[in-house]
Each structure stands twice: as C-alpha cells, then as structure tokens.
Amino acid sequence: MSWEANIWDYRNPYEWMARTIQAKFPPMIITCAITGGVQGKEMNENLPETAEEQADAVYEAYKAGAVSVHLHARVPGNQSLTTSDPADYSKINRLIRERCPDIIINNTTGGGPWLTTEQRMCCLFADPPPDMASLNLGPFVLKMPLKDRKEPLPNPRPGFLFDQCIPASYADINLYAKTMKEKGIKPEIELYHPGQYWVLQDLIREGNLVPPYMVQFVMGFQTSSFPTPANLLGLINELPPQSMFAVIGVGPFQLSMNAMGILLGGHIRVGMEDNMYYRKGEKLKSNAQLVARVKRIAQEMNREIATVAQAREMLGLPAAKK
After folding, report:
1. ∠ CA(72), CA(73), CA(78), 5° rounding?
2. How far apart are CA 4 and CA 313, in angstroms?
3. Nearest to 189 by CA among 119, 118, 143, 248
4. 37 partner at 20 to 30 Å CA-CA among 83, 149, 274, 305?
5. Residue 321 lies in a domain
6. Alpha helices (H) along 184-253
7. Does 320 map to a domain?
8. Which of 47, 51, 110, 37 shows the shortest CA–CA distance to 80?
9. Domain count, the chain
10. Is the confidence at residue 47, as pLDDT, over 90?
C-alpha cells in the first residue's frame, strides 16, 4: 500500500460520515514535541534539556505510543539556549536511534529566537540525519514574560519580558525546503494562519515540496490562528490536494485541539514544547503522560493508532533500517 491510499478529501461530508460509520480513518500518527526552544526547567522541572534527558523522554514517549518525535537540541554549556551546532543534534539523534531504531526523528529548523537562517538549518546536517524537519511558513511575533531561572538550575538568569519577531522570507523558506529536498528530509509544514497558504503554494510552484504534504496547524500560538473549531475547519478547507494534516494546540488548548484532530480524521502532536500542564494546576511529570492520554482518547473514539511502519508509509518515508 502506498501513501496515496491514505489520502482522502477532508472536506467531503459524505466521505467523513462513511469513514466514521465504518471506523476507517487512516491510522493516527502521534508526534511528541518533548522540549522547546525558549522555555526550560524554570517553567517545569520535568522538562528535558540535556541530550541524555531528551533521549530518555523520547524512549518513554515511544513506549507510550508516539511514533514521531520533534527535537530542539540545547547548547551543552548553556541549556537555556537552543544550539546552532550540528554536532549537538547528531548526539541526540544517535542516542535516540540506539534506543528507538525505527522512530521518526523530526528536528527543528525553528530553533531558538536568536539564531540566523543558516544557524537554524544546522539540524539538517546532523549524523545520523533526521527523517523529517519542521518548516515554518512565515515570521511570527512573540511577547511573553519568562520566569527567573534560579540556582541550582544550570545557567541561571533573571526573568525578562521576551518580545521578539522571528523573521522569515519567501527566499528563506524556500532555502529550507530546497535543502531538505536535496538531503532527502521530509518537511513537516508548520502553518500558523490562513495567510501562510500563499507561502505553501509558492513552495509547491517552485518544486521544493514533494507529496504527500504533511501540514501541521499550530493553533493558539501567538500570531497564529485562534484555537477554535471554526478556525481549524477553515484551515482544513484550504488544504491543497495530496495533503494530510496534524493539529497542535498550545497551552490550555492542547487537549481540545487534539480532540478536534482525532474527530476530523487528522493526526496530532502533543508534548512539553507546547504545554507544561496535564490539567489546570497540575504540572506534567513527563511527555509520556500526554502521549498515553491522547492515545487512550483516540482509541475510545475508534481511531486506530499508527505504528511506526504505518506512519512512515503514510508520510512517504523509507522503511526503518533493520
């Protein structure tokens, strides 16, 4: 079976009803984003930072049902910063491959807020290489207070108001996509609001994307679409042919947006990059908690959970090496 067999028309109400009745949606891919590029243990002491902590977190999430993992490598000498050194991604990728030989490794080209375009691409030159890499479809603006990073945490610093624009031009985004294509790395297309469909269409016209297109909707992030059912439906309605979609919900909207993704026949992402809490007032103990919960909910809603082999087939990725 090829990836084409798992592509269907998300906009067709008759097909959605038939698939719901027959419980025949494609198997659901669970991705876990275990850590981000800005916040650290000052927000949640259980957030993995070091390469070893991240590899442990991936293994736990993998055992809980995640088939894909999204990674931000930190600077070894300053865990509060995202790295620009391919060697740091090489170390994490190698540690993960030793414990989860078949898992889909997805490195970030979003990186951290103070990196240049070239520095953000460092993860594409890791050894072993990632299977996938995130591809943001445009700039975004962030404004949020960051907490004090206090001792005994390594690299302490005072809190401050984080107010940054993360730049990206058509040329930058096409450079990321072209480099991924040359290296055989599949883009995970990060779409924050409907205006970015202009950029997606440009990438397709330029020949820098190969189907199937994995479009991941980032809901509730600053300067992204508001995380509402109506907005998610609107984004799905604009998907180009040969697309599949996944849903991210940020912070308190993670669970509701995940549920929408399950219901609508898409795929989902969970993880401590997007959310530090299991429920209101209860911090997460691990990324695996989120994976286990969304897997349980999906199974109760008659969604089959994808194996790594199924996920690779649906994404058009090569089978894992034995």
Report:
1. 120
2. 10
3. 248
4. 305
5. no
6. 197-205, 229-237
7. no
8. 37
9. 1
10. yes
